[in-house]
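Hey everyone, long-time lurker, first post.

I ran two proteins through the pipeline my lab uses and got sequence/structure pairs for each. Pasting them in order. The first:
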Amino acid sequence: MCFDFPPERKAPKRYVQYSPKSRLIMKSKFIFFIIISFSLVSCGFEKLGDWDISELYAQKIEGTNKVLYKYDAWGGRDSHVSGFLILDSIKEFEIDLKNTLPFYNLSSIPNKSKIEGVKHECFNSCSEEYYKTEPIFSPMKIENSKSEGLNIETKIYQYRGLSEKDKGLRGDFIFEKFVETKDSIYFFNLQEEKYVDNKHLNELKLKKGEVYLSENEAGEITKIVINQTTLNPLNNEIIEALTYFLMPNNKIKTSDFSDRGIFKEVKLTK
């Protein structure tokens, strides 16, 4: 069934006449608004690249003169950015969104041959589609790029597949001593502050790559955060993603650790 509606009746235009004095006042207010707006922008409210860095860690890339940084920063309008960035060791660090590496976590120890990381994309598994899809644990695609002359390999996983293997924080420990090898760190005489598996561990072996050392002003370690992303070496299927927090029970210095596969805190000057 169709309906014929009468044509819309437009209200007659009304014109308002302003006196010369009123027009002068309005013009003055407009100029004042422009000046104030320009002043706010000039003071840094909207300056691109004006970031407040909350965390900064650096790892020397073995066999090169490059440094891999992991940063976390806040900017105008509560914008938040974080990521990995490669710079020459002689360059001073500054946020560079364009050259930030395209992954979220490392999957191996960075080296001169290749830096490998992982990220996720939806692939029809985000939001309400999450439980309508089957999890896929192999990478959906692998992208290769370059940064500062180094090869970057990013394995991209289905969101549901990666999230189901991400077990989050698995433990918060206090340790007495450690032993570092080329690719791993062993922590001994553990005390559990929090451990989700509810069983005592005497020691813990964690692989290097994404190890973060926080320190005090004396260079003594206050906290260690280790992210573990483990892939099947045959088909790159994601096995698990874990995070551990550790704190020393005695004085251990950052310099007691090597540079290979370890991020060390960069002190920020305010």
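...and the second, right after it:
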Amino acid sequence: MNLFNKRVISIMARIIISILLGMFVLIMASFMIMSLQNLPDLMKSKPWIGGFINHTTMLVISIIIMLLLSKSKISTYGFKSARNIQLKPIILLSLSIGIIGALIQSFFPIKQFDSIENFPLSK
């Protein structure tokens, strides 16, 4: 085979492997969501938790795959450490806002409406 054919085969193999890894990430996230179906009270009280766990699972599995493929050199995927940015205040501010938001939501729960006709603003 000449150099062109080897290069085309290499590119096609990378595309197929990328598609398969993407499908693996989606399947694993689906399994995580299906495991949460056993907790219907949690899903009813906090409807956002399904999307949060789904996206968090996709993020974690994707980062694990990146770490495995790059032999722990995640900078090959464009991740860089911040040089002149202090991360501690940003992380503390983000956590504070998240905790305050969660506390507000738990103290003032949103009433669930079974249909649009029972929603107060629909009349």
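Reply from user beta_strand_b:
Welcome! Quick read of the second one: Residues 3-122 form one domain. The chain is about 65% helix and 0% strand.
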